[in-house]
Each structure stands twice: as C-alpha cells, then as structure tokens.
Specification:
With 482 residues, the protein is of the alpha/beta class. The chain has helices spanning 14-25, 41-46, 48-66, 82-106, 169-172, 189-200, 220-232, 292-295, 332-346, 376-381, 397-402, 433-445, 450-454, 465-476; strands at 4-10, 30-34, 110-113, 115-120, 123-130, 133-146, 150-152, 166-167, 181-185, 204-208, 236-238, 241-248, 255-263, 266-274, 276-279, 283-285, 312-313, 316-321, 361-363, 368-373, 386-392, 411-417, 423-430.
Length: 482
C-alpha cells in the first residue's frame, strides 16, 4: 500500500466508509484508518444493525405471543431460543462486514487497522498490532476527515471495569442470557429501544430518567404517548429523579440503584434491584488517541471538535470532522450526509449544505416514533405563530385491520406557520412511521404547506393516510375521519 493519499479518513463507520466510496468515485486516492478489525464502526457492529435486528426479532416473538392468535394463527409451542437469536445477529453483522470489505476493494480504498495519531497537519502515524508486536506506519495526506464517532458515557465517579452487572448499549446487545430484571438508566432513544427488546423477551424492565419526561429532546406529545405505550407493556417508568448510588450486591447476583424522588415536596429515597443495570445516559466523542492538541484543533467543553460551515476544523483548514465527533444529532444518516458534503466540496462541486433541521429522528419501538423539524416547544420559544393539526391513527381503516391496543396512542402531528402554512415540523408515532417520515422531510425540504400534503392522493388503506388527515386538520381545522 502507498504512503501518501489525497484523503485519509479516520474511522470506518457510516460517515467514514460512505465518504471513502464517494471520494473514490470522484477520483481521489483514499485510505481509511480503523482501530478495530471489523469495518462499519459502532452502527454496524454494536449499534444500529444489531439493535434493529433484535427489535425486529423480539417484536415478531411478542406479537406471535400476544396478538396473532386473534387472527386465527395458533402456536402449540412458542419460545425464544436466545442463543440462536444472537447467533443470527452475529451472522448478519458478519455478512455486512464482508460486503463492506468488497466495497472497499471494488473502489480501490486502502485499509489500515490501527490507532491513528496526528504528527502534523499532513502526516499521521498508525500503530498496527501484528503478531503481538506494534508496528508504526506514517501516512501523508492532503486532506483528512475525522470520523471516529462516539462512545457510551459513563456515570460520574462510577467504576465499571470488569463489572458484568453494569452494561453499556454494546454490552446489552451481546449478553448470553435474558435478564429477569433489567434497570435502564436513561429514557432516550437507546434506552427505550433496548428496554423494548428485553421486555418483549420476558424481562421485567424499569426505566429511570432524571428529566421530567422520556425522549426530552422530541415533541412533548411523543413523550407522553411513548410513556403510555411502554407502561401498557408493563415497563415501569420513573422520571424526575436523582441517581444517588449504583451498588453491586455483595454476592454479585445483582445490582441496586438508589434514587431520590420528590413526593409532595419531600425528598424520599427509593431502591431498585435488578440483575443488570444498563447505562444509557448519552455518548461522548471518541478522540482520545488522535493527539488533537498537537495540531491545535479546538474542541468544546464536552470534547466535540469545532468545525465551520464546511465542516473544516476551525484552526486547521485541511482537516475536516463529521458525525458524532462534532456533536449534534448522533445519527448514522447525519454522518453519511456530512461525509458526502465534505467529499463533494473538496471536489469543487459546491454541494448544498445539510439542513440540520430536516434530519429525521426515529425510535424503532413498536409502534415506532419519528420526527422532523421543529417541535411545538421550539415554535413557542421562537414566538412563531402557528397552526397545528393532530390526527389519531386509531380512526384509520388499516388500524382496525391490524387491531393493536397501542394504536390508541398513535397519531400524526403537523405544525405549520400561521401566515404562510409552510410546514415547520411533523411528529409521528405509529406503525411504519420510520418510512413515512421521509415524506415529511421531502415536503419540508421543498417548503411545502400543509395544504400541499392534503392535496396529494394517498393509497387506501394505509397508515400514510394519517398525514393527509392531519394536514387537513392543520390548515382547515377539520378532518374527514373524525
């Protein structure tokens, strides 16, 4: 392999490998430096892919157990072979890794497996482990893209070394037994998804959230509905609390979480005991090996790399950063779009900048949650006069066909600017909304009005009809099926 490249990309997650492929297509010589043996980063190996597989397989089991009998589908014996389920997960990851290796070879992208450290703004040292020996290789570059992602945040002053009772998200995707009792600290996207997986498989799950609501960065109506749905599925949800202590039981058979809650203005201590505690309190940028200080690359007080509008590091103009490492929404699709932007910018194509307001967020529970644009709270805070329409999915014909109790809490909510009817935000909870949200994002990208959405012909019977109904409710204050 060569010693010099047009572009070196550190990290092979969605942002890194997509950037590399696009750069190769545009004629750049490319190398990727990846610290792990497998390509794909957190998303493929210990994040998006394994979690969505387990969400899908656990949902299939749960619906077979609780609902399919009403359709006349009867099982004599139904059980989970957890080892087989996890083996299938590993098989999927392996196949996708093989596919990525093929794409790298096809696009003539060189791969270095090792830790990258900047020597100067045009030189990187890679420490490669081979046969229990460290080998260092220096690589020159014209441009570099930092795409090293993020890692789970630890709880302050808590040691988790070799403690198998305290899990991070990657651990929860690879345990070998289904917990009897699982305590989840953190009611964000990851905490809710992993809670759903293990509740469906038979665990008693408790979610402890310090904020006053779940998914606190999303529209309040989504927070309210997902809480009701989770509680209906026997997931205990506790909010507005302070974690006082996390303690391993003396016989190492479980873990005790002590929290402080207010009752009628009086603080009281509560204790929750489980087999495992999943820490899902956020993620921090993964930059510790890069030696950013050597180059004077600036980071904020949380460690995220500071970049300008072109995603250039603010103090070194030939080094760029994308994805989780620069903060914002920590989503694979956001990292991909940022990477594509940087490559096309370097190729002189003058691409459109990513509209961060239109990056969709999805929670893959059942029903799903999705959102794009401004929340009602943000619109109020910005003092924008707005119209709003909400349509309950339970009124749809397709809801009667599938007949799930959770649909009573499902809806589409549209927020538009009062003076122009331009859509400001769309928020959904229901089946298939992970797919439906793209209609919302496209409409908003082209600055459509709620009336524009209403004037489209939707197929019947589908859940997408709820968008048409909510749109009519938004601009006309009425709906067909209410």
């Amino acid at each position: 392999m060569k010693n010099s490249y047009d572009i070196v990309i550190i990290g092979s997650g969605p942002g890194g490998y997509v950037s590399a492929i696009r750069a190769s297509q545009l004629g750049f010589s490319i190398a990727i430096i990846e610290k792990n043996q497998n390509l794909g980063g957190t998303c493929l190996n210990v994040g998006c892919i394994p979690s969505k597989y387990l969400l899908h397989s656990s949902k299939s089991f749960f619906l077979s157990k609780t609902e399919y009998h009403s359709y006349g589908i009867i099982y004599d014996k139904l059980y989970v072979d957890f080892k087989k389920m996890m083996k299938k997960k590993d098989h999927i990851i392996n196949n996708l890794n093989i596919g990525l290796q093929f794409l790298m070879k096809k696009n003539k992208i060189d791969i270095y497996h090792g830790l990258a450290t900047f020597k100067n703004k045009n030189l990187i040292s890679v420490t490669i482990q081979k046969n229990n020996t460290s080998i260092k290789k220096e690589i020159e570059f014209k441009y570099c893209i930092i795409a090293t992602g993020s890692e789970s945040q630890n709880y302050p002053n808590l040691s988790t070394n070799n403690n198998k009772r305290i899990l991070f998200s990657k651990d929860a995707l690879s345990i070998n037994t289904i917990p009897n009792r699982l305590i989840v600290i953190g009611g964000g996207v990851i905490g809710i998804e992993l809670s759903s997986i293990y509740q469906r498989l038979g665990s008693k799950v408790i979610i402890l959230e310090t904020m006053d609501k779940l998914i606190s960065n999303m529209d309040h109506s989504l927070s309210d509905s997902i809480k009701k749905i989770l509680e209906k599925k026997s997931i205990q949800v506790e909010t507005s609390l302070l974690i006082d202590n996390i303690e391993i039981l003396k016989d190492n058979t479980g873990i005790c979480i002590s929290v402080i809650k207010k009752h009628n203005g009086v603080k009281k201590m509560h204790h929750y005991i489980g087999d495992y505690c999943l820490l899902s309190i956020g993620r921090i940028p993964h930059t510790q090996y890069l030696n950013l200080d050597q180059l004077g690359i600036k980071q904020d007080d949380k460690g995220f790399i500071l970049v300008n509008q072109h995603l250039q590091c603010t103090t070194v103009n030939n080094i760029y950063a994308i994805g989780d490492v620069i903060g914002g929404k920590m989503l694979a699709h956001k990292a991909e779009e940022e990477g594509l932007y940087v490559i096309e910018y370097l190729a002189g194509q003058n691409p459109n900048k990513l509209n961060y307001n239109l990056v969709p967020t999805v929670i893959y529970t059942y029903p799903e949650v999705s959102s794009v644009g401004k929340t009602e709270e943000e619109v109020k805070k910005e003092k924008i006069e707005y119209n709003m329409g909400i349509f309950p999915m339970k009124n749809l014909g397709i809801s009667k066909i599938i007949d799930n109790d959770s649909f009573n809490h499902c809806f589409v909510k549209i927020i538009s600017k009062k003076s122009t009817d331009e859509i400001l935000g769309i928020h959904m909870i229901g089946p298939n909304v992970s797919e439906m949200i793209m209609e919302a994002a496209i409409a908003m990208e082209f600055r459509a009005s709620s009336e524009d959405l209403y004037r489209i012909c939707y197929p019947h019977p589908t859940f997408s009809e709820s968008i048409k109904e909510a749109a009519l409710m938004t601009f006309a204050k009425k709906s067909i099926h209410i």
